[in-house]
Design goal:
heterodimer, A: mainly alpha, MetI-like fold, 2 domains, B: mainly alpha, 13 helices, globular
Chain lengths: 290, 291
């Protein structure tokens, strides 16, 4: 590289040694470090509070350091809230929405991208139009529908209304549009059925889109508050955000315990995000470009 | 079955599951909520058709006008600040600086945690008794009064949480936009003697207009849908000072059980969001620059 672009490298090296630009970089890094501290403060405080007693929190509110290290919060939270049950609910709810929506959005996006059929454009516009409709416009009639179906406090009531969304369909459509056309033609000549071509060739090729949309759905549903608040009315069916938010509403001074439960509830998504971070961010970043 | 028929049916078979779900749980509810908004529906009993009475009643409902005002304040306070901060951080983190990946991940972090759960922590941090932020602010001499329970501070505090939540997400969009700008443009401008601010004004900003359109629209939609941190931190209080449209819809429907009235409010919200999206589309379409 350096021999191919000698002028550029020399200039860059000179700029890097410029004292004014070094000072600028130092100032930017310091400012970003301060911003980072503020951004992470809620989590730092959660961790701190989860290991402290209520008495310590009330007498030393201005510190993040524990003067009363205790594990009681982490031990007691399991019996005060049906936390294990709510963990299971959240896993089943967010997990099944993620798996099913990736399949359903993938199939729909594939049909819109790789087939030509009557009404295609109208259908695509209609699907995109649902993106702008806020959930608030539909949540009362959807709630009434679930009541009529006797689907409140059930997993299918939580899961089924959420397994297709316009954003996922759009995302998969854009992905499949970009794949070369001759991919499935060879398989078609070999006599493979359309579903076989999708399942064996096209869907596996879409793994970057699967990862992005899957992670999006996992985060959105694991973290969601409003939807589980509507669909579940008893504590044993709640997901973690709804369960903890409602417990906070009733016992607003069980600080340490709520924070211990909160840390446990946030941890799986933080781990999942760390694993897929780069590819996920690259995936969502491209959606803003179109 | 003939092959042409099966070829015609195939795309519809692929689309069927998505269309059924979207039809039953998005399409039909839109229609049904429009009908419900013209009735006096409650949680039980037979609803009676009352025409536009719900919509007329909204104008003389102080809680509705209050919620409308709070939503406007929330949107005007959070959306522009989030977008400007996102652009600032994106520009800073597009440079080669030490710890760049770490800072990017930290700023994006609020977007991956449950806003409902982290808002419990925000509420406690702003609590007048145990709150670390109230303790620090009052030590600095800021009169924070009753913290999150103070009528003057509650709305600004939930707005801070809203900004905190979304800046990193918008930053990622802007970073992608910045990376699509060819570097030669900056080099050419530098040779022509353009300073950093001038380069930002005449290259970065115009070439980011597509990204900006997307980000501003999403920011406005997010602002009008704000719910989680308000529900957890203030439940719309104190004295309805943080009651936004969505909070009002929620409590009208699920605490007062006035379904007809609540759907009327939600339709007003939908119309506002749609109108806003259209205005923004027109605004940006006139300014979009491509290269």
């Amino acid at each position: 590289m350096s021999s191919a672009f000698p002028v550029r490298t020399a200039r860059r090296r000179r700029r890097r040694q410029d004292p004014a630009s070094i000072l600028g970089t130092v100032l930017i890094v310091l400012a970003l470090a301060a911003v980072s501290f503020f951004v992470l403060l809620p989590v730092l405080w959660m961790i701190s509070a989860s290991f402290r007693t209520n008495g310590d929190l009330a007498s030393h509110p201005g510190t993040l350091w524990s003067t009363s290290f205790t594990l009681d919060n982490y031990l007691n939270v399991w019996s005060r809230i049906p936390l294990a049950k709510q963990f299971l609910n959240t896993i089943v709810f967010a997990g099944s929405v993620t798996v099913l929506s990736v399949l359903i959005d993938g199939m729909a996006g594939y049909a819109l991208a790789r087939f030509r059929f009557r009404g295609q454009t109208v259908l695509f516009v209609a699907i995109i139009a649902t993106l702008i409709i806020p959930i608030q416009a539909t949540f009362i009639p959807v709630y009434n529908l679930l009541v009529d179906l006797h689907w409140l406090n059930t997993f299918h009531g939580l899961v089924l209304p959420r397994i297709a969304d316009a954003f996922g369909i759009f995302f998969f459509r854009q992905f499949f549009l970009a794949l070369p056309k001759d991919l499935e033609d060879a398989a078609r000549i070999d006599g493979a059925s359309e579903f076989r071509i999708f399942a064996r060739i096209m869907f596996p090729l879409a793994s970057p889109a699967v990862l992005t949309i899957g992670m999006f759905n996992l985060l959105a549903n694991w973290n969601d508050l409003l939807w589980p608040l509507l669909v579940t009315t008893n504590d044993d069916m709640r997901t973690l955000p709804a369960g903890l938010a409602l417990f906070k509403g009733q016992h607003s001074t069980d600080y340490g315990m709520l924070m211990a439960g909160g840390i446990l509830a946030l941890l799986p998504m933080v781990i999942a995000f760390v694993i897929v971070q780069r590819r996920f961010i690259a995936g969502i970043a491209t959606t803003g470009m179109k | 079955m003939s092959t042409t028929l099966s070829r015609k049916a195939t795309p519809w078979l692929f689309l069927a599951p998505a269309l059924i779900v979207l039809g039953v749980f998005v399409g039909w509810p839109m229609v049904s909520s429009a009908i419900t908004s013209l009735t006096d529906a409650r949680i039980a009993g037979t609803p009676k058709f009352i025409g536009l009475d719900n919509y007329v009643a909204l104008f003389s409902d102080p809680r509705f006008t209050g919620a409308l005002g709070n939503t406007a304040l929330y949107a005007l306070g959070t959306a522009p600040i989030s977008v400007v901060l996102a652009l600032l951080f994106a520009v800073l983190l597009n440079r080669r600086i030490p710890g760049r990946d770490f800072f990017r991940a930290v700023l994006f972090f609020p977007f991956i945690v449950s806003l409902g759960i982290i808002s419990i922590a925000w509420g406690f941090m702003l609590d007048p008794q145990v709150g670390v932020l109230t303790a620090w602010l009052s030590e600095l001499g800021v009169p924070i009064g009753n913290g999150i329970r103070d009528p003057a501070w509650a709305l600004p505090f939930v707005m801070v949480v809203g900004i905190w939540r979304n800046v990193g997400f918008f930053m990622v969009m802007y970073l992608a936009g910045l990376q699509s700008i060819p570097g030669e443009l900056y080099e050419a401008a530098q040779i022509d003697g353009a300073g950093p601010w001038q380069r930002f004004r005449s290259i970065t900003l115009p070439l980011l207009s597509n990204t900006s359109m997307f980000v501003v629209m999403v920011a406005a939609i997010f602002a009008f849908q704000a719910f989680d941190q308000i529900y957890v931190m203030t439940a719309g209080g104190p004295f309805f000072r943080t009651e936004t449209m969505v909070m009002y819809i929620y409590s009208t429907a699920f605490q007062d059980f006035k379904m007809g009235y609540a759907t009327a409010i939600s339709w007003v919200l939908v119309l506002i969001v749609l109108a806003l999206s259209l205005v923004q589309l027109r605004f940006f379409n006139r300014r979009t620059v491509s290269y």
